[in-house]
From TrEMBL, chains A, B:
UniProt signal peptide: none
Lineage: Eukaryota, Viridiplantae, Streptophyta, Embryophyta, Tracheophyta
Domain (BTB): residue spans on this chain: 92-167
SUPFAM superfamilies: POZ domain
Pfam assignment, any one: BTB
Spans annotated as Disordered: 1-21
InterPro entries the record matches: BTB/POZ_dom, SKP1/BTB/POZ_sf
Organism: Hibiscus trionum (Flower of an hour)
Pathway given in the UniProt record: Protein modification; protein ubiquitination
Listed name of the protein: BTB domain-containing protein
């Protein structure tokens, strides 16, 4: 058995080595032995892949440092960090107010901000503040149909690109992001809503996504719904949607039909 | 030859397959055949590594989008984008002036900025502007020993985390970064200077790095110099440095000695 020509696996220079040494392949990553049919990469490619991974990780570290540098303290954070007697000025030059947030009686709490930041993050604020409109003169931007908490989180996101989300907050912020054309925030909320999508909330999410042009959420919801058409008409929200906005229901059926046609074509080819 | 038990490489279920199929390993990455001694990973680890790489790339895309969102237009960019008759207000509330930039006669050109940005990026500006010092009251920050171009690039970096560097600009910005404690910029300049390090500029770079506490550059320069001790005393800048700052020369010899000792210990073990 010492010199049968097995295949390339047997080393040409291995005559003096033991058979097991010459013929065993051990994965450099998991350290397990493996057979030819389970071969992944050669050593050279393995090492290259390792270098690529290291490079990508370095790039990530660099980008994280850049984010940390560019990220603002929010003027809200700052007010909380300072002592009550000396919160420290942060030079805000504008306030945002949730002027009909539904809490009766109490005057709305203004959210301080900087025109320069608002203008930089949102083309709508830019047009509003650079064109000497009422908001620019008064230094007060009134925002309707929003809670104080959502407005605060919205302003905070403009400074930090961060937000703590639950489903309600993601919907509230998505609406604000759409209204003020803050694309990055809209994408952030959309990803969150897609991650929370399930059969129970699929129809409501679909209708919400439709109303606010959230394409990522819309596609995900539509895909989930059309995968479960047998259960659709039994859903409580289905009848409500037929009543309230039948065009949306039509679009579901259209998507289902188109999916069926595509599947048929796919099978034929 | 059909059923010799070669090793794990021969599939137990491969009796009907041709020998070459069963026994050849082909790298999934470069598609070349390879021998056992050149084995890298098994298939499972190869696929996992591929997924990891995809994940890292997605993370990079997300971080890049975040940087693009957090990045400011610089107030300088903006002035250039607007038309000359209507540059568009960007609400600057402070100007920086290079007040002795060496150009005689002409009044210095102020560089507009926002207090909120300066305070956010530099603890020195923060102390200066939040504590009702002269600069805060007057809205003018005078900066000495700097050219208008470097000051402009400095302010631009505070908004964008970007700068176009040559060696002179990297040195100028490093000095400003050190003075105003802008760590991210200092690191950016240090990396650039290390990439430009060579034998010709090694001594000057070493002295510069020493003067401005640029540790990354200092270590790289010292390593290059101590690798070429035989040529050191022949350098023109060497004699100049001995004259001007002999302690720095002593540190080079100390580093060389310490390197020799370490190498000896390493050899012994």
């Amino acid at each position: 058995m010492r010199r049968h020509r097995c295949n390339q696996v047997v080393r040409s220079d291995s005559e003096t080595e033991s058979e097991s040494d010459a013929e065993t392949m051990r994965c450099l990553s998991c350290k397990e032995e493996y057979a030819a049919r389970d071969a992944g990469t050669c050593k050279e490619c393995y090492e290259e892949a390792g270098e690529t991974e290291e490079e990508l990780k370095r790039e990530i570290e660099d980008l994280k440092a850049k984010v940390a540098f560019l990220r603002f303290w929010s003027p809200l954070d700052h007010a909380h960090r300072g002592s009550p007697t000396s919160p420290g000025p942060v030079f805000p030059d504008v306030v945002l107010v949730a002027y009909d947030d539904g809490s009766p009686g109490l005057p709305p709490v203004p959210v301080p901000a900087h025109k320069a930041v608002l203008v930089n993050r949102s083309p709508v604020f830019k047009a509003m503040l650079e064109n000497e409109m009422e908001e620019s003169r008064s230094g007060t931007i009134k925002i309707s149909d929003v809670s104080y908490d959502a407005l605060r989180a919205f302003v905070n996101y403009l400074y930090t690109a961060e937000a703590w989300l639950d489903e309600q907050m993601a919907c509230d912020l998505l609406v604000l992001a759409e209204k003020y054309h803050v694309k990055h925030l809209k994408g952030f909320c959309e990803k969150f809503l897609v991650s929370k999508l399930n059969w129970d909330n699929s129809l409501l999410t679909y209708a919400f996504a439709h109303q606010h042009g959230a394409k990522l959420v819309l596609d995900a919801a539509l895909s989930l719904i059309t995968d479960n058409m047998d259960k659709l008409t039994k859903k409580e929200e289905y009848m409500e949607l037929v009543e309230k906005d039948p065009r949306l229901v039509v679009e579901i059926y259209e998507a289902y039909l188109s999916k069926q046609v595509n599947t048929a074509v796919h099978k034929d080819t």
